[in-house]
Amino acid sequence: MDIMRFIDFPTPRERPPSKPSECNSERNARKYDDEYFWDNLSEEQFKELDAQIEDIERNRTDKSLSSSAVKQTPVPTDNPIEHSERKPTRVEKTTSATTYGLQSAPSTSHTPAYQPPPRRPARPGRALQSPYIDYGRNDLKCSKVASRAYDVVCSATRRSTRSSSQSSSQGDDIIISYPDYYVSLKHLSESVKPGGKLFNTVAEIAIYALKDRKTKIPVKQILPLRIASFLQDGILDNGEINSAFQRSLHHLDRSQLVMFPVLQNIRFKRLDRTVGHFFLLVLNLREERFEVLDSMRSLADINLKTCCNNLITAIKELWHKHYPNSRKNIDKYQLIDINVPLQSNNHDCGFHMLMHCEHWNGINMPQFKEKDMPTIRKMLTYKWLQHPENNIAWRCKMNIC
Questions:
Q1: Whole-angstrom Cα distance, residue 243 to residue 301?
Q2: Tens digits of per-residue pLDDT, 231-245?
Q3: Domain boundary assignment for the chain
Q4: Assessment of whether the complete model's pTM goes beyond 0.70
């Protein structure tokens, strides 16, 4: 039986070649008629192409040599400039230390390790402000009772010196008595009256009233005024200093702010007398720095800078003594100046210092002005009088019952 009759087309092996189309014939014609075909080139064109090929190969070889020269460590020389002149032109354009053969030498860079920039003390942006706080409102308002108490306290300055001394000797002149401090009505009146300068005894009572005794380890700890006075005199080992820095009692390294109110005695040669000035030095453990808040001077003042440096040196020494194993290492803490409201007189520095102690939180600035000082004097006086730990019946004494 013949099976070939059932096959309509021949097998692929037996298929005859197709006739080339006109397009293929024209393409092949153009291909073979190309003037750059090897068989159609003249001798000059062949030499020119050969030269171009040699240039391409030479450039490729130079690139590979230059890349290998950068990756490999060359032999160090005493004169890096002379060594760089023997390198190819492409390598000379690089300015890295490897190009001049300095990769194997030890680094002599004095660039310090990266530290995050300190946060700038500023008022929080509008997007970060609490909707429950009116930042533009002035909360420094005095009640009628506080104004009445302030007027009675200021009237004590008009008493005679003899009657004051007699009442003071009998103990009747004491108007504020805390467990560790007390102050007489005369000293309180001389301190808070308009134009009066803050006595150091009144400042101690004010600092005591600002302390937070409800929290075991408060965020902010304010040390007594006399601590900074001891440190200025170079006294670093006595009972009060050791008690203030004792870890088992205060745990200063667990707080964010440790405040040192300072009373600096400045000697003026031209006036031939010593003048006292209050300011605040803060150990900010959260931001890892020391901060100075002064209402009259900046760190450009040599007296302020010298006093702060002496205090910081003493604080670091006491920190090593009482907190040797603490995670807070204050050795590298730097001192910065905080821009605070300034005073234009010479008697409000103590009240500026107290406002800084009360309102400074390490970020936001205390919002008060010099025109608010009369109100601040009244508010603070009433606050000290009505403190829960004042065991004197001051209302009956001043006839404000």
A1: 32
A2: 999 999 999 999 999
A3: 42-99, 140-196+369-401, 211-368
A4: no
